[in-house]
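S.,

As promised, the flavin mononucleotide run. Input:
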Amino acid sequence: MKWGFRAAAAVASSAVAAVAVRDLMQRNHALLRNFPVVGHGRYLIEAIGPELRQYVVAGNNEERPFTRDQRRWVYASAKKENNYFGFGTDNDVEYTAGYPIIKHRTFGRAVPRSAPAAGYEAYVPCAKVLGAARGRAKAFRPESVVNISGMSFGSLSGRAVEALNRGAALAGCLHNTGEGALSPYHRNGGDLVLQIGTAYFGCRDEHGRFDLRRLKDLVASAPIRALEIKLSQGAKPSLGGLLPAAKVSAEIAATRGIPQGVDCVSPSRHAEFCDTDSLLDWVELLATETGLPVGIKSAVGDLEFWDELTTLMATTGRGVDFVTIDGGEGGTGAAPLIFTDTVSLPFQVGFARVYRMFAERGLHENVVFVGAGKLGLPDNAIVAFALGCDMVNVAREAMLAIGCIQAQKCHTDTCPTGVATQNRWLTRGLDPALKSVRAANYIKTLRRDLLKVAEACGVEHPGLIDTASVEILDGRTAATSLDRVYDYKPGWGLPSAADRAAIIELMTAGEPQGGSAPPSPTAMSRS
Ligand SMILES: Cc1cc2nc3c(=O)[nH]c(=O)nc-3n(C[C@H](O)[C@H](O)[C@H](O)COP(=O)(O)O)c2cc1C
Ligand code: SF4
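Predicted complex:
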């Protein structure tokens, strides 16, 4: 025993000595040269800092992108556990400028029944019919106002994509493929929005050029309900998609038609159009050839493009069926820090500017507006609906629902939860069957909470919450209503009168008011 202990001690001492010698000889790290061996502690703490902070140091509302409270809400909702919070808010409501307050109504008009129980499933379809305004052959009413945002197979593992697609089928929502092509993992029952990025993965020929015939074959082979042309993404506008070499596995290389183990960098611009006019021609071509509604996804920076787009739509009869606005606070698999932190406007400011341009030209009622950028949290989503969103897309919140712990290593292929890695050893822990149920639970809970808030505001659907129902606090003593903050005219942010009537009918068919029992005989005799 003693001999064994001595041998182990000798091996450990030699290892420490070897590390010390290497640290003293190397020239890359001054810290290690100056503090051999112990200096490694600093690198270890840096590496596990995010995990340490979130469990040990940070308060409930300190962390970004998602605070502990926000993650806790998503995790509990995904597991159908108690997602309530006790004792009252720990947000600094009184002193935080920019804090949104939703104004409930004491006596709203007739509202649908909703229930607080975690298991209650609310039917909350989109208040507009996607593609109807432009008469697309395959126009449809999306069944869910909450849908899964584009995240490619590549940035996410196959098992994560499968979990999300199966979750979309369970929750009855749409699953956007992201720009990395339609993979076998997307074919698990969920309806799809096919995203077309600058590299045209999945619909390109052997030279990397867009191939319409391949697109039509793809559309015929899968439940694709709409096409989304990706112009830019909030976290990295003007940069093409980036998949680091470590994540380009043989399977991804085959799905995308690219070499294995080499950085996969998509071009920063499309080759099929070069300006707004030719973009609209391409939109019409895709819609005519496939019959599908066609939209664009973009972050918001300079407004010249939006000015041209809305002017051309108002004057030439061509147009997009939907517009997805991605906020600068949105997520990415990998991007340079300057782009994630500083390029493109945050969601609310960017969306409101774009919506105003559509509204000023009378186009807002004919376009479905989709928002993304931390809108998978009920408070953010409600403000988005009030500003004119018809649907919200959720990306990182859906990742949290299937197990992401916000370790923020998505770009390194070392994701500890198997969500954003191609490493087989790491992905094997992610069970798509179990996690699909979690994704669906989370989406259903968010939908239900949105309906509950609509009910509190006295309307039948989140899309009917108007800008007057939200105020933004300026601090302890003042607040400004959302329409004034963003310079909205009366009626902006709402669907057309016909769409409002249709959605009210859908939401209230056969439902008793607010879930109450009938009035007592005394109340009846008073009325
Ligand atoms: C891992 C990851 C991969 C993504 N891949 C794409 C993509 O392929 N195409 C795209 O348009 N957006 C992509 N996004 C952006 C999301 O679709 C979404 O717009 C953004 O993260 C904002 O939503 P969130 O705040 O709910 O995450 C990606 C985001 C993440 C986190
Ligand atoms: S757990 Fe995985 S998916 Fe989530 S942030 Fe970390 S690396 Fe990215």
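The longest helix spans residues 432-456. The chain has a mean pLDDT of 91.

- D.
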